[in-house]
Amino acid sequence: MVFVGIVFSTLLRDTDLGSLIPWVNLVHHYLMPVIVVVDWVVWPPQRKLPWKVIGWWMVFPAVYVAYSLIRGAAIGFYPYPFFNPAVSGGYGGVTVLCLIMLVAFVAIAVGVRALGNWRARPLA
Predict the structure, then answer these.
(1) pLDDT reported for residue 124
(2) How many Å apart are CA 2 and CA 74, to the nearest integer?
(3) In angstroms, what CA-CA distances link 41 with 45, 56, 59, 108, 116?
(4) φ and ψ at 83, to 5 degrees?
C-alpha cells in the first residue's frame, strides 16, 4: 500500500481516472497508504521478520502485473497508463518501467521490514 500511495502521488496524480469514483480514489490511493504505515508503526510485528518475507511480498505485485498485461493485451484496457504499450513506448518501455517499479518496490519492502524489525515486540 505504501508503494501504491507513492506511485499514485508521483506518476498518476494528474492522470484522467475515467469512471473511478472520487471517494474510492481518495481512500485507496491516499488514505489507506497512510493508515497502513501508522498501523505498522503502532502495532509492529510480534517477531523480527526474516529477509525471505520480501520475496513473499513480491508475489502479489508480480501476479497483478502479469494479469494486468495479459488482460490488457486481450481486451485493450490497462488499469494504469504505464502498463499500456501504446503509451509507454511498446513492451520494451513497459518492461523498463516495470523493472524501475520493481527496484522501488524492493527498496520500500526493505525499509518496511527494517521499520518492523526495529519496532518488533516479542510475545510476552
Answers:
(1) 55
(2) 29
(3) 9, 21, 23, 15, 7
(4) -85, -15
**N- to C-terminal Cα separation, the chain:** 29
**112 exposure class (CB count in 10 Å sphere: 0-12, 13-18, 19+):** buried
- What is the model's pLDDT at position 5? 87
Domain locations in the chain?
A: 1-43, 47-124
Amino acid at the residue 106:
V
Half-sphere exposure (Cβ direction) of 40: Cα atoms closer than 13 Å: 19
Q: Is 45 helix (H, G, I), strand (E, B) or coil?
A: coil
Indicate if the pLDDT at residue 70 is higher than 70: yes
Residue 37 to residue 1: CA distance in whole angstroms = 9
Q: Write out the three cell numbers for 108.
A: 520500500
pLDDT reported for residue 120:
81
Distance separating alpha carbons of residues 47 and 67, to the nearest angstrom: 33
- CA neighbor of 2 nearest in space, from 113, 119, 124: 113
